[in-house]
Structure prediction request, 407 residues.
Amino acid sequence: MDANFAPEIRCAFTDAKAVHHIRGDPEKSYRLIIEAIGIMDFIEVSGTVDGGSSGRVVVLDINGAALWCPDVIVNTHIFELTITLSRSGHFEVVADSSAVVGHLKPLPPIESQDISAVKEWIASKHIPYQNIPNVPGKTKDFIKRRATRLFPFQDEQALYLGMCIYDWTTPSFARMELLKALEYTGLAQRPLHPFDEFSLAKAIWDSSDEDFTPQNEDYMRSFMMKPTNSLNDVKVQLDRGSVALQHLNDVENRVLSAAIDLLPRTSVAFCPQLFSGQGFFGIERFGVYFHECPLNNGPKGTELAIPFEEAMETFLAPGKTITTKSVLSCTDSRLEALCKAQGILIVLNPKPGAHVWNAPFITPLSCDPEKIEFVFKAESKFKVESYSRMVNHLTGRSIMVMTLQAL
Prediction:
């Protein structure tokens, strides 16, 4: 695939290769950022014409619009695209005798005050997680170089977008995920939703991982607290610092969401299914990770915990549509997900006919280069398809398999 553009428009692909570089691989989704205007995603699929007598021909999915190239047999020709863009957000793509029109995807909003706040928290060492055990981590300079490629035209903001992705892959995910899950999202924002402080304090205290205990300075710093030997002191510190902690968490999650929106999508041909091990903070808290849980309506002080069996029979029942309150991490390996599963294994299927997952591959910015990770941002929607039970052969324990369809 080659492409031509008007010279006054600045564009860049997130693979860091020249715009005119030849591309084309059905297992890759290519993302083009048009400065200050929008986003175009290209993925090569295939189709048949003349009943298939001519072989399979190239079809380009461009932001969901299909460009048929009936004169181009798969894997046999290089063809040129001519793209016309308007500042109103429309595009036209022409290849040989074929053409298609469509809409650019919008660039996510990135607030300057959010970037300034993240910059301050990096200086105070609340972002990213400090001294990660057992993984190499990445330096600030490395993250800046990688992020500049992945987030073209973001200038200084690229570092902070990349840093929030990186921090999600560290033990900071516990704070970033749990605090969002424990918000009463059915109650008014003043300026943020109130959250279940008792459950957060208990989850911090109950952490059983030897590297992430209330006595660990780095673990507690991620919650803007000091090491402690008592649950009561966790409650006291949380009561004293809850406003600052929730502000940090809200801003970092907002910048993380923008970064996820900017990264290229994942090809369904490359990953036919995705998997996620769940239950890290207790199977009884899994249901409150979704907006549809009725406990989100409070009142404040209601413990955000619900028996999983009850959730399965109501708002998580097969056929229901559910919406995440936090980012959802996945892998392409069922075995890897089983290693993380503490009661629940999520199996994700794509929407019928979908060519991409609305989830980017974030391993290039991960603290652990060996961990394959894809992420769906908060507010992602899924349809519950089915449940089944299996024995996790790694632990010998029975777990619930929850099959979802990405919407």
About this structure: The CA atoms of residues 152 and 328 lie 25 Å apart. The longest helix spans residues 231-262.
